[in-house]
Write a structure and sequence with these properties.
Oligomer: single chain
CATH architecture: Alpha-Beta Horseshoe
CATH topology: Leucine-rich repeat, LRR (right-handed beta-alpha superhelix)
Number of domains: 1
Largest sheet: 3 strands, parallel
Number of strands: 3
CATH superfamily: Ribonuclease Inhibitor
Pfam family, one: LRR_8
């Protein structure tokens, strides 16, 4: 979902992907216009190993990111931290 001009992660995606979230290990949301990610994102995709959020407008992450036990790599380059 890179370079899609997303301003947020679509809420409807959580319902659609509910049955397969445990099989999703990599998400790339690079080069969008996202200013925030909800806690629901991190509590839904619990099996993520890699998350690329490079090139957005993020200035903070929810505390729920700390519970991502399987997350090995997170790219936050070119954000507003």
């Amino acid at each position: 979902l890179s370079e899609c001009k997303l301003i947020s992660f679509p809420e409807g995606v959580f319902k659609v992907l509910r049955s397969v979230t445990e099989k999703i290990h990599v998400i790339t949301l690079a080069n969008n216009e996202m200013k925030a990610l909800s806690s629901k994102f991190f509590t839904t995709f619990t099996q993520l190993r890699e998350l690329n959020l490079e090139g957005n407008a993020l200035n903070k992450l929810p505390d729920a990111v700390g519970g991502m036990e399987n997350l090995k790599s997170i790219n936050l380059a070119r954000n507003k931290f």
